[in-house]
Structures are given as C-alpha cells and as structure tokens.
Amino acid sequence: MEFRKLQAFVRVYELQSFSLAARDLFLSQPTISTHIISLEQDLRVSLFDRIGRKVIPTQAGEILYQAVQDMFRILDEARSNIQELTSQVSGMVIMGGSTIPANYLLPGVLSSFRRIYSDVCVDLRTADSIKISHDVLEGRLDFGLVGGYAEHLDLENHLLFTDELMVVAAPDIASKYPQVITPQQLPDLPWVMREKGSGTRQAMEEALHKHKMDISSLPAKALVQSTEAMVRCVLSGLGAGVTSRLAVDEFLSSGQLARLEVSDLNIRRRFYLIKHRRRTLYLCASMLMQHILSQLSHNAGS
C-alpha cells in the first residue's frame, strides 16, 4: 500500500467527503477516488459506504484507519528522532584507535569534547591499525585513528600528525653499546617486537628497508600485542624496543629507560583519521571527527 493512497484514505475518512479530501490534498476528485478504489482492490473489501453526498467508513475502514493512524504516529516519531540526530550534538559515537592515539592522545581530546557536548557518549575501541581499518570498512566503526595510510579506495585518509619513534632499552642494556650505533649493529641487540599489523612495526620495517635490512634480522626475545606490553617488557630488561616518545617520555625523564641513538635511522610514522567514503555521519559523530582534526592536525609535517 502506497503512502499517498493511505493519506487520501485518511482524509476521506476524517472529512467524510471525496471532494473535500481532494481540495485538502490539492488533488483532483477522480485521483482521490482512484486511490480509494485501488486500496479496496488490494484489500478485497469495501472501505466506505457511499450514502448520498457522504461517505461512511465500513468496519474494515475503521480497522484500517486505526492501523494507519498508528503507522503515521510511528513515522512521525522516527522523523522526530532523525531530526534530533541532525540538529543536536547528542548520542553514541563508535570510533576506533590504534594504541598510541587511543592511550596517549585521545583521552585529553575526548575530555575537551565532552566539556562542550556533555550528551555525547564515545565508545572507543582499541586495536591495531589493520583491524581498525577493516572495521571502518565493514561499518562497525563511525571512523578511526590509525598509524599509517590506509590503502583502500573506499577510505578517506585525513593526516593528523607525524610521530617520532625511537629505540629504547633499560639502562643496563643500553650501557653495553656506544652512545650512537649504526643500523648494522641493531641485530646485536635483543628485541621486544610488536605484532604484525602494528603501525609501529610497519614504520620500523620501512626504516630498515632503506638500509637494505629486514626486520627478521633482529633477534626477537618477545612478541607483544600492545605498546603498553612492549614498554613493560623493555623496562624489565627483556630487550630493546621501538616506540613513540609519547609512550616512554616519563621513563626517559626518570632514567628508567635510555634512548639508543641510531645514526641515519629516521623512524617516523604518520597518523591518519580514516572514514568510509560512503558512510553518512550524523551530527554527534561529525562534530567529534572535526574536533579531533582540529586538536591533533597541528603537527602534520613530515
């Protein structure tokens, strides 16, 4: 049953007149009659008894009118709720973040956003960059922050900032090596490695590739799934690791970790905000995305 036919039925029912219903809906009387006849044919019942100039609803007409009124009410509620989505900054945003932004950058940014828009709840899901990209593509996330350019035609990449990665180790390990070592000396160190799919690992692989080295040449003593686990393993003296300064700054300041300078090894990683090109974001998600871009994209240089 088409909406316009039901609309015509309701006006005829309420006005008890085909001509008045036609005038009210700015349609011709034959059009109104055609709509009612079509409904009656679909339902195989008479909806109105024509008595003189008046039309009186049959029992079937009464049942249909109540059902259509309920349907129109539900549609009005849906329209109202949708308008709230597009006019009010409130509701749930489901976003993803790889380890560094999720743990060291987004908490402050989300806090400042919530001070402005207190009715927004953010469901922040942490995973590696590959997983975040996949979930954005699958529609499970409104958008995500990842440590590397997401190579997919359906993904928009917005550059946020460039992060400096460094080699760190516990002081007793670092003291066994010169202040500055060469990339070719890296295989002499024991290593705590991030898992495949990690943006940190990818950045390290790219930096080593420029020196015709493969990451498999570095002897891994542990393989971990998060920056936090890697830092804890390095602090315990298990081996050296590569991580963002953001993750180890306090440990470098306190002397619990030491930086190993590696000549001519520039390990940098770019962070991007990614969104599905065909995904429509409602106002709360769109406003949060813009807030993140404005807060984090000030350091996007190479």
From TrEMBL:
Query: Which Gene Ontology MF annotations are present?
Result: DNA-binding transcription factor activity; transcription cis-regulatory region binding
The cross-references to PROSITE patterns, in alphabetical order and at most eight, read: HTH_LYSR
**Keywords associated with the record:** DNA-binding, Transcription, Transcription regulation
Report the residue ranges that make up the HTH lysR-type domain in this protein.
1-58
Write down the superkingdom of origin: Bacteria
- A Pfam family recorded for this sequence: HTH_1
Q: Which InterPro entries match?
A: LysR-like_Sec_metab, LysR_HTH_N, LysR_subst-bd, WH-like_DNA-bd_sf, WH_DNA-bd_sf
Q: Which PANTHER family match?
A: HTH-TYPE TRANSCRIPTIONAL REGULATOR, HTH-TYPE TRANSCRIPTIONAL REGULATOR CITR
Q: Which family does it belong to?
A: Belongs to the LysR transcriptional regulatory family.
Q: What is this protein called?
A: Transcriptional regulator, LysR family
